[in-house]
Amino acid sequence: MDFSLLTGSDPVTTLILMCLPMLGGVMLIAAALAGDGSSRQLNRRIKRLRSDSNVSPAMVQQTAISVRRSTVDSRYRVVDRLIKATLPRPDLLRHRLERAGLQPVLGRYLMICLFSGFAIFVFASFNLGLPTIAAVLFGVFGAIGLPHFVLGIMASRRQLKFIAHFPDAIDLMVRGLKAGLPITESIKSAGQEIPGPVGEELTRIFEAVKIGSKIEDALWDTAKRLMIPEFNFFTVALSIQTETGGNLAETLSNLSDILRKRKKMKFKIKAMSSEAKASAYIIGSLPFVMFILLYLINNEYVMTLWHDPRGNLMLAGGFFMFAIGISIMYKMVKFEI
After folding, report:
1. pLDDT value at position 67?
2. What one-character DSSP code corresponds to residue 3?
3. Predicted TM-score (pTM) of this structure
4. pLDDT digits (tens, 9 = 90+) for 272-291
């Protein structure tokens, strides 16, 4: 394959494109040779059990099942070692994935990051014709910033769904408590009736209590993973009631009323700040609209910003000031209740 047709006369880009397939092949070979060491060790133990004892295959299969949560982040030991070596806080990333409603598999997330960064690097290098350094910077942003941004959007949407249905779940718990059910059974019934993330999290709490965990520990683990103030109120109320006693149904009923009033206040603030947000959207979109219009009118005049180093500096400064302005307008229209 003639790389000069794709990269022109840039030897650095040609070297990068030649090394990327070789690096991918080396990683695939190393992963294939490493394999899943835990599964091979488990198969050897099963074979030794079958040969050394008169245990039936059904009993051996039951022995191989583990109720512990798996801490393996991928199918290959090489990738697991790479994750532990490169990620400073993998538990925080697992919580972030679970907050977005995804499985906490870090190997899959890293593969998505690498694919996203490589795709943006190729697009910036070939389609936009950017210099190699600028294309690499865009690729780094695509590998780190873009998946993080998408994951944040998914987590925010799931949190909004949780907040919308959580007062209804508390009302179901109150009805169960008034009917004579314990709090664990009330949480179970609410988890079965309420759809979406609320039902999933409540069912997860009930299962944790069922296998021997304390309800306070299960609630605080969920609160740490969700990071939702409404659920923190619920956790604090249950923890205080467990220590001091009292009418739990009345406490949860008051909490449900407070959460509904809090939600109503948020809607009022959103309606009052809608005009300022619309102005921020219009002002923030003007630079991009003008760039598109100038690109359609005079392509060579606008593309000087991409090909000239001075234009790259001007773009970097413009994006930096644009980010500062957006953050200031965001702080002005955002209110905490």
Report:
1. 38
2. T
3. 0.64
4. 888 878 887 888 888 889 88
User: How many other C-beta atoms lie within 10 A of the C-beta of residue 266?
Assistant: 13
Structural domain of 299:
273-333
**Same domain, yes or no: 210 and 292:** no
Residue 312 near residue 306, CB atoms below 8 Å: yes
Same domain (yes/no): 278, 261? no
Co-location of 260 and 291 in the same domain: no
Residues in the chain: 337
What is the domain-level CATH number for residue 207? 1.20.81.30
| 246 and 277, same domain (yes or no) | no
pLDDT digits (tens, 9 = 90+) for 108-126: 888 888 888 888 888 888 8
Which amino acid appears at position 65 of this protein? I
Q: Which of 173, 157, 294 is nearest to 228 (CA)?
A: 157
In whole angstroms, give the CA distance from residue 259 to residue 275. 26
Which residue is it, tokens 């909490």?
A: 255
CB 236, CB 249: distance < 8 Å = no
Q: Of 232, 265, 298, at which residue does a domain stop? A: 265
Rounded to an integer, what distance in angstroms lies between the CA atom of residue 52 and that of residue 134?
63
Per-residue pLDDT of 27-85, as tens digits, reads 544 444 444 444 455 556 556 655 554 444 444 344 333 334 444 555 556 666 666 66
Contact 34, 76 (CB under 8 A): yes
Domain end among 225, 249, 265? 265
Six token digits for residue 276: 């300022």
Quote the number of domains for the chain: 2
Give the CB-side neighbour count of residue 216, counting CA atoms within 13 A.
Answer: 8
